[in-house]
Amino acid sequence: MIDKMMNTRLFQWVDERTDLGAIIKSQLTEYPVPKNLNYMWNFGSLALLVLVLQILTGIFLVMYYKPSAELTYGGYTVAFDSVERIMRDINFGWLIRYMHAVGASAFFVVVYMHIGRGLYYGSFKSPRELLWIIGVVILLIMQGAAFFGYLLPWGQMSFWGATVITNLFGALPVLGEYLQQVLRGGFAVGDPTLNRFFSLHYLFPLLLAAIVGGHIHALHVVHSNNPDGIDIDHEKDAIPFHPYYTVKDAFGVGVFLLGYCYFVFFNPEAWGYFIEVDNFVPANNLQTPAHIAPVWYLTPWYTILRTFENKLVGVLMMGASLAVLFVLPFLDKSTVRSSRYRPVYRQMVILFFISVVVLGYCGHSAPTATLKVVGTIATSVYFGFFLLLPFVHKFEKTRPLPGGE
Amino acid sequence: MKGIMMKTTHFSLLACLTLMLAPAMASASGDGVALRHAEITFDNETLRKGLTVFTDVCMGCHAAKYISYRNLMDYPELGLSREEVDELRGDKALMSGLITELSPEDAAESYGKTPPDLSVIARARRGGGNYLYSILTGYEADPHGKIEDGSYNIYYPGNRTAMPDPLAWMGHDESETADLEEQARTVASFLVFIGDPHQLERKAIGVWVMGFLILLTLVLWMLKREVWKDVKKH
To answer: pTM here?
Structure first.
């Protein structure tokens, strides 16, 4: 089909002026991909799909959404009213809005799987360090975008979540208070906060789109890692991206959409995990909800924050827990990439995954003495992973790699 | 053998974690009394009865501003005729929301706080329809005798509610129980419905979407197998 298209006169005309044919060849039809990739390698293309879905649904939501905290009848606000108007009166507004709300969680599901795969198979190691670092930038911008977006419906959890998180900046020395006021546009979360968060919620996905371009470019320079984590012979062990991986990714999209559409059409609140119950209560600055928790995808880091009694220490540790991902490629000194041939690292990385899930559970639940202990243990495991990593290669007996390398 | 050992280690680790978390889970849900189960249905008869309870009882103090009189005609689940809506709205505009006559100021003076708008109340309370049903049928005499009758509700967090027993549940005759429970059930169903008035349409469309996606995914899977059949494993 591609060959037929490339033979048309229109394509020739464009090709002479853009070299499009060469791009298609180098990036698709002749771009080499290891043939032994498993289904864990599907999550990158899925993340791209969800990003596009989020931007498209977002563009339509903005046509009706009104970022104003002005009070209206019944203790609601213009912003809350406009969201309900989208849900009730705009043709298929409910579909667009639920796609966007479920999409936010879906985005984190696929991106966390994508990151987990990179960790497990050592995709962050040489020569893919920068590819990984660009990925961490994407993760941070995503988390920012999600946080800004969550304020927009102006429900109780929107308001108090934003209050708690912007408060954290106030804990930083010297510039803290100033930063907090700049973020809020005043001394407390209010109408100016809503407007600047709305602006940033529109900006960040555009940044994401650009940086994702860089991520894919970097990938296409160093090429994909594979489950064995060994450098492959491009003649023998690689197959072109198109048609092999376009069709495999398309099948992955089908499976993903089945899950995504189940939630969009049958369970958009996901038992309060995607849309929290408290966020149907309009924001009220005089009434703090009994239990403030961020949405599930931010709860692991929220637990790390809460683990430390001292607020500044908590903020710094939370920052460190994300910042450490930037230096991960340089902490791990082993020359073997994949967990398949690294018995010690494999145990460590699985423990690390468990610690993130446990941290997430703790952050989502109301704090209790038991959870505090569990959260502290999980936090230690989280940081322990990175602390132990530089020393693993000294005692780890790796298994022989296939091909005798 | 080693693989099995490793799996066992992981399993026992998970089991440990689960055991550690178990008490926390129990206390997390042990906050209030178990709610009564309400048979929430969206058939026309139930929703119309619920609407009547809403306009006759709830709307004395509460509003549902996101539902307009026009909506009562337009949502097929309710499907009121123009005549019925005209009778219900009196001189209010067709596009007006279901707004109570009681002003927020008067309400605050009489009850100590403004009664919340009920448009999304079923989604704004844990337990949804069951919670609403339980509250309406939860008025009892305070066993400790501290809270006056009509303000004590076994299902309300903290037990003291500012809403005086709207269905006159407390001390009702046994012969009235079925009728009062039906009123509570229908109005709870109505409130769950208006919380997300496109939910039936959404699920109906969803069935087709899922059916299409299952077929599409199946075809893509077969296509993938076909394209990949000449790729040797090693």
So the answer is: 0.92
